[in-house]
Amino acid sequence: MARPERDPVREATERLLAVRRLEQELLALARRARRKAPELHGWLTIEQFAVLDYLRASNGVVVDQLSAELDGYPAVIGRLVATLESKGLIERVTESEGPGDVVLRLTEAGEELAVEVHRSRRQAVTERVHDWTLEDVTTLTRLLAGYNRGRPPRPRG
């Protein structure tokens, strides 16, 4: 059986339309995340929660590493850190006597809030995909992970 001929113009047009649709869906996702943030995060902004979440996962980091990991400008990350510090959610801990050994860590209150927000977010996502198959949830997770890393997703199998 003969394979149909490739039409590069049609493929390029379809890809452009698909990317446009993806862009629209990502924007809708971002808008929904911002709209739901107060409900899920309480008084925390999404950016503040990202700091707490990263500190929880890493068990503490220096400020420069936090800026790099969150793709944030150091001044912006500094303001987020200052706000969270003033609320008693994170603290600066000196690891040793050397320069640059000050590490940001969650306080007990920060850990408790991060756990509470994670629970709230997990419940919201679970409700959103409650009627999806496990394969659908896994596929979306794999595709988003590839998108966020800036690499194509690996084929399954």
UniProtKB/TrEMBL annotation:
<dbReference type="InterPro" id="IPR036390">
    <property type="entry name" value="WH_DNA-bd_sf"/>
</dbReference>
<protein>
    <submittedName>
        <fullName>MarR family transcriptional regulator</fullName>
    </submittedName>
</protein>
<dbReference type="InterPro" id="IPR000835">
    <property type="entry name" value="HTH_MarR-typ"/>
</dbReference>
<dbReference type="InterPro" id="IPR036388">
    <property type="entry name" value="WH-like_DNA-bd_sf"/>
</dbReference>
<dbReference type="GO" id="GO:0003700">
    <property type="term" value="F:DNA-binding transcription factor activity"/>
</dbReference>
<dbReference type="GO" id="GO:0006950">
    <property type="term" value="P:response to stress"/>
</dbReference>
<feature type="domain" description="HTH marR-type">
    <location>
        <begin position="19"/>
        <end position="149"/>
    </location>
</feature>
<dbReference type="InterPro" id="IPR039422">
    <property type="entry name" value="MarR/SlyA-like"/>
</dbReference>
